[in-house]
């Protein structure tokens, strides 16, 4: 079924397409016609350009949007340093300087729910590489929130583009450019600099996040697959304009205070302004947040023999400067049919020049057993550069001896992978403070791997 049946039903309208140039207005006539910055924009609005790439980036890479808002984003008092909400976020570059780079395979039990945290205070840096100040690298987070952000609060990251993967709970995300409802089995991408607020309409939420400091997420090239397949462009959804009107006669004399928090080199800064940041009445451009239903992914695989490379399951990719190599890919392992003849059907044993961080949204993963001490929803694993990994012993023996008839695997399940060309270091929070590392992961998974060798002596 090429669509997820969500328990929490959709409540917003969207514009469909990936990388499109959209225009939307919440009030008719708010968009200027034929130009971007007239002397007096319609309805007394201000024109503000939001640039996601350099002005002179090639046309096919250039990302920008024009926002038509009641007050421009610059109308606030100076930002001041804000206290760190936890020991991995808000401390500037220190967690990156203290990353632990180790070759061991790592797996985590499900991360704790945090009933007193909102999205920002419940966002934990787990692993990363590079430096956001030079726009190089990426970061892996987990988040757990028990309450909505305050009604008059907004957050943005100047560090990179953020991909959110909710595992439980519903995210009702208000952005400057409109609303996104994001449920488990959906993802969303928030571009660098876009201000937003996360509400929890169905109770506590938990999930994973990937931030790329360089470039942006794009659809992978399809090559010989042809013109359709994998994540199709028409299934991505962008918000329509929606705004509040809460301000005074000037930017500094409104009746209410709004707190805007910025993540800047992994440090937090805060300002309080006298008008809502969600006052964009209309916008047009190709730089905007969007979401995608993973149930619409058109899975492609082998119909003869052998398991293909997992790159065939790539939803989004953040390319590096080297063609074919990504800063990070977002890959999923959804329900799919396996029909390979004389084939070991789960993913094979592997050592990889890429780092592989995996999480489980729901169900069971066909190459790892669940249950206590296993790979379960809300948990994660990291197999770093050239660290050997693959099916655990029970999964291997089961697949090795299985009757090879057409079989559908992963029904009711979805695992995912953040794959990066970078060597990922793990934070102190990820290795120690969270207290979720499975110390016996390697022994549990591969300590009992059997010897099937039947050859003679050399």
TrEMBL record:
Give one GO biological process term: L-tyrosine catabolic process
Which pathway or pathways does this protein act in? Answer: Amino-acid degradation; L-phenylalanine degradation; acetoacetate and fumarate from L-phenylalanine: step 4/6
Q: Does the keyword Oxidoreductase apply?
A: yes
Location of the active site: 307 (proton acceptor)
Keyword Transcription listed? The answer is no
Indicate the enzyme's highest-level EC class: oxidoreductase
Q: What is its EC number?
A: 1.13.11.5
Q: Which GO terms describe its molecular function?
A: homogentisate 1,2-dioxygenase activity; metal ion binding
Q: Where is the Homogentisate 1,2-dioxygenase N-terminal domain?
A: 13-294
- What are the annotated GO cellular component locations? cytoplasm
Positions with a binding annotation for homogentisate: 365, 389
Tell me which cofactor or cofactors this protein depends on: Fe cation
Sorted keywords for this record are: Dioxygenase, Iron, Metal-binding, Oxidoreductase, Phenylalanine catabolism, Tyrosine catabolism
Q: Which domain of life is it from?
A: Eukaryota
Output this protein's name: homogentisate 1,2-dioxygenase
Native organism is: Thermothielavioides terrestris (strain ATCC 38088 / NRRL 8126)
